[in-house]
Amino acid sequence: MPHSPELLGRMRNLDAHLFRNIRGQDRVIARVAPALVRGELGLSDPSRPRASFLFVGPTGTGKSELASVFSGYLFGPDHLMPFDMSEYQNKESVEKMLGADRSDVGLLGKALSAHGRGTLLFDEMEKAHPEVLDLFLQILWHGRITVATGRTFLLNDYYVVFTSNIGAADAMRMERSSAATVEESVQRRVRQRLRPELVGRIDEIAVFSRLSPDVQREICSLLIDREITRLRQNGGYQLEIGEGVMEFLLREGYDPHYGARPMQRAVSRHIQDAVVRALFGRGTAHGRIVVDGRKLCIAGE
């Protein structure tokens, strides 16, 4: 079946889009992008999800963000369906996911009913109850799931992503080791912790690296650009970044143990607080953001 030039062009540009939006994880993207392209071009097994991934590594290294970025690129906004497995740790979790009776499709059924395609994201999969893990086997092997109402959902138009912190402590301790050595150690931990029949049905296991200071700087710049763009698009605020602002935000947000999450919070909080101070002070918030002691402000407020 021939593919449109538009689709082929988007697939050629997929890895560049991922590299631009996910920093410091080039080895991961090199594994994930080809699987996504195969799925989009209809080359993967049509009786199973288009592709399945297990993203493992330290907190805040971009595991969930990568799922969000590629899902947005392939399907548009609102097609990422996240499930926090820390909320599915007991025996009743299966009913929560699939429904408790013939009138209930469960949370998974509701998500699938609302989206005919997209990405299922199961965060911290190792926390799920064993019977929930059994559901994952069905999803990965048979490419379908039947909910309490009796309705069966086919999953061949979906990607399935699991995230896990298995082996993260080892990865943090091995910061001087090569990426290949760390990956081998984490993969070994995954196979020790998870059932072999589950691991064997996942298409790609991708190990995320700890973020170096240089990568954190790149991420800080990316987060600043996103925040400025978001405020301009949503609120009409015309803002520029002044000298020293990035260094200030790096000091406020850098955390070697928790990755990019503290940085994201620091960027959003300090820039938004600068907007609030300008609005309270003069009723508008346009101009250059500068450092004022231990806070940011908009020049002229």
Summarize the structure.
The protein is α/β, with parallel strands linked by helices and 301 residues long.
User: Gyration radius, to the nearest Å?
Assistant: 21 Å
Based on secondary structure, the structural category is alpha/beta
**How many independent structural domains?**
2
- Judging from the principal axes of the Cα atoms, what is the shape? globular
The counted number of beta strands is 10
| Secondary-structure arrangement, i.e. CATH architecture of the largest domain | 3-Layer(aba) Sandwich
Q: What is the strand content? A: 15-25%
CATH superfamily of the largest domain: P-loop containing nucleotide triphosphate hydrolases
Q: What is the CATH topology of the largest domain?
A: Rossmann fold
Largest sheet: 5 strands, parallel
Low-confidence stretches: none
**Alpha-carbon distance between the two ends:** 61 Å
Describe, in plain words, how this protein is organized in 3D.
The protein has helices at residues 5-12, 14-21, 26-40, 63-75, 93-98, 106-114, 130-142, 168-173, 179-193, 196-199, 213-235, 245-253, 260-282; strands at residues 51-56, 80-84, 118-123, 144-146, 152-154, 158-164, 204-207, 239-241, 287-292, 295-298. A hairpin with a 2-residue loop joins strand 9 and strand 10 (295-298). The N and C termini lie far apart (61 Å). Helix 11 (213-235) runs parallel beside helix 13 (260-282) and helix 12 packs across helix 13. It is built from 13 helices and ten strands. The strands form three sheets. It has a five-stranded parallel beta sheet with strand order 2-3-6-1-7, sandwiched between helices. A three-stranded mixed beta sheet has the order 8-9-10. It has two domains: 5-207, 3-Layer(aba) Sandwich (Rossmann fold), CATH 3.40.50.300; 213-298, Helicase, Ruva Protein, domain 3 (Orthogonal Bundle), CATH 1.10.8. The mean pLDDT is 93. It has 301 residues and is an alpha/beta fold.
